[in-house]
Amino acid sequence: MNLKNIFITALRALSKNKLRSALTSIGIIIGISSVIVMVGMGNSARVEVREKVVSYGANALMIYLNGPRTGKWLIDTDLVTLKKYLTDIEYISPILIRNNSLVKYNNNNTRIRLEGISDEYFDIKKIKPQLGRPLVAFDVASTAKVAVIGATLKDRLFPGKNPVGEQILVEGVPLIIIGVLEYLPESFGGRDVNNVIEIPYTTFNIRFAGRRSFDEIWIKCSDEGNVRDLGESVRQYMIQKFHLPIKDQYLFKLSTSEDKLKTANDISNALAILLAGIASISLFVGGVGIMNIMLVSVTERTREIGIRMAIGAKKRDIMMQFLVESVILSLVGGIIGIALGLSIYGIITYFVEWPFIFSFLSVIVSVLFATLVGIFFGYYPAQKASDLKPIEALRFE
User: Fold this and answer.
1) How many domains does the structure of the chain reveal?
2) pTM to 2 decimals?
3) Residue 80 half-sphere exposure, CB side, CA atoms within 13 Å?
4) 17-44 burial, b if ≥16 CB within 10 A, otherwise e?
């Protein structure tokens, strides 16, 4: 019997029990669709992570104090020195932070995160205003009482209105709004980075902090491959400036955009593997279902097998007959599972506003995997059918 006849015979056998065949394929359908969804969501998550890293700052690094403030921290003159001697520094900006600051506009008020920065901060994070202008060097040098506000604050205090030129009170200090930042994706920790006010760090020092030192220093490296080395050079500068003993040399911590990306990717990969593992259980269950149905089919068709052997069918023909039936069940389930998985993935990405990333490789792998499931779980029933003795099979009622 040639392969074409085997295929046609297999289709006829399966079509006699359409409902049973459909139910048998459900496990494969669920398993393959789950894998497609998990792979797709994993790819979309990686793109989202990269976008968050861009909002963190491409080629960026952050130096911060890991412990109580002891007076051993950089001041504005150190920024000039670092940029002069470390040529890999493209941009550098201090950050002073005051959380939960009270903002008032007319009779409305809210709480925000107040940040003191330099004009280079916008270049480090690659952000720009959607309205007005960013801070410039003159604002910093003149300790100007100006502010660039985030999109969340704009929506809360100035719904449907351009706030540029308006005056707000931050902890009782009057500030003129000169710009509104474009909307940014939430931070890695889930913080709303749009609920913020950016002011010159010199203004922050005088009006809010009463000190010259900074909470953090952000740096953009001109060479992507030297980010970590540059961060270590900055840390060594601090160690030498303050003559820190060995036990205090890691008082200053370093965080890079590369670290953020690696951490987020490790988490997303671990979740993807875990979810794909869970989804593969459905494939295994579906494969067992196929094996069970094929064993039942062998029992039901014992006399048919005996007749075919009696008129000249060989063992390999019988084995191929049942193996092809098993592969068809699995393959049809796989194709339906791919279509269902892509549909579910598309619906999810639409509602969570993530990019839809079609992976042709995952589709090919799913088809091959479904075929292998059919072969693996169909082999034993096919072998059992081919091992039947013609005389015994003909006697079977």
Assistant:
1) 2
2) 0.61
3) 3
4) eeeebeebbbbbbbbbbbbbbbbbbbbb
